[in-house]
Design goal:
By secondary structure, this protein is an alpha+beta fold. Helices cover about 55% and strands about 20% of the residues. The protein has helices spanning about 1-25, 100-105, 110-130, 135-140, 145-150, 175-245, 250-265, 285; strands spanning about 25, 30-35, 40-45, 50, 60-65, 70, 75-80, 85-95, 160-170. The strands form three sheets. Strands 6, 7, 8 and 9 form a four-stranded antiparallel beta sheet that branches. A three-stranded antiparallel beta sheet has the order 3-2-5, with no helix packed on it. Strands 1-4 form a two-stranded antiparallel sheet. Helix 3 (about 110-130) crosses helix 5. The N and C termini lie far apart (about 180 Å). The mean pLDDT is about 80.
Length: about 290
């Protein structure tokens, strides 16, 4: 009897442990817990902690709640100007509705990635097909990614998926036409640089011509002003002479000074001898009038 009693007690303990163990559900901060009953979702737990479920009747599964990164396989795309390019991108996404995610994708991340890959490739193909190759290269780190994400829109909402960002790791040309494209881009840039240089030279020549013209006008004005001042000075000089000759005392003094200046000029260059006619004005300095 004692052995049977112990056996029954052990069975009860194991049964209680089985029931308790099958009833406890632990949810971690970075996950959702899905509770199903006969295959139907009856509850979703999105807060960390311990909860209960009916053992045997209800089952639990988990889905990632954190941000997910999916590296999309490389794919060929065609630009607006019919150039082939190889696109390599990755997607940042998360589960926005665990119920929709479970119902439509059976809670499988692999199925979600397949849907994301198809949606992103379709969007990338649509955006790139409306842009020239040069425009794509120039916008590969900014506007291109934004346009691809905007083109996806809410197309994945029905699966409980939210795409946060699409980033291109590389968007390159096949090796067989890469060098030709680079050469064409270099040629275009050289043409633009030559155009800027020609415009600069034209502007510089115009500035030089305008400056030369302004200098010429200023020199002409300065010369005219100088001639005017000179004429005014000569007029004043002649007026002074006229006044001097009209005054007998001043006229004699002026003639005396002019005679001295003439004598001084004649004795220049080492000439110490001055030969004068008796009627010369200079002789009058020494003999008187």
């Amino acid at each position: 009897m004692k052995r049977a009693s112990k056996f029954i007690t052990l069975l009860l303990i194991f049964a209680i442990m089985f029931v308790v163990g099958g009833s406890l559900v632990i949810t971690y901060p970075d996950e959702y817990t899905i509770i199903r009953q006969f295959g139907e979702i009856v509850r979703v737990t999105d807060t960390a902690g311990v909860s209960l479920k009916l053992p045997v009747i209800q089952t639990s599964s988990t889905l990632p709640k954190s941000l997910q990164l999916y590296d999309i396989p490389e794919s060929d795309v065609i630009t607006k100007d019919k150039k082939s390019m190889i696109a390599d991108a990755f997607v940042l996404w998360k589960i926005s509705d665990p119920i929709l995610f479970t119902r439509h994708l059976n809670g499988q991340v692999a199925q979600a990635q397949s849907r994301i890959s198809a949606s992103v490739f379709s969007s990338m193909k649509s955006v790139i097909s409306n842009m020239d190759q040069t425009e794509i290269i120039e916008n590969r780190n900014g506007k291109l990614a934004q346009d691809i994400r905007a083109n996806i829109g809410n197309s994945l909402d029905e699966y409980g998926i939210q795409v946060l960002a699409v980033e291109t790791k590389s968007l390159d040309m096949p090796d067989d036409n890469k060098q030709a494209v680079y050469d064409r881009m270099i040629s275009e840039r050289n043409n633009i640089a030559a155009s800027y240089t020609a415009q600069g030279n034209s502007s510089a020549q115009k500035i030089k011509n305008d400056t030369t013209k302004e200098v010429s006008v200023m020199k002409s004005q300065a010369k005219a002003e100088a001639e005017k001042i000179k004429a005014e000075g000569e007029a004043q000089y002649m007026q002074i002479l006229s006044e001097a000759y009209n005054d007998t005392s001043k006229a004699d003094f002026y003639n005396f000074v002019r005679s001295l200046d003439a004598a001084k000029a004649s004795l220049g260059n080492g000439n110490n001898t001055l030969l004068l006619d008796k009627s010369s004005p200079i002789t009058q300095i020494f003999y008187g009038y």
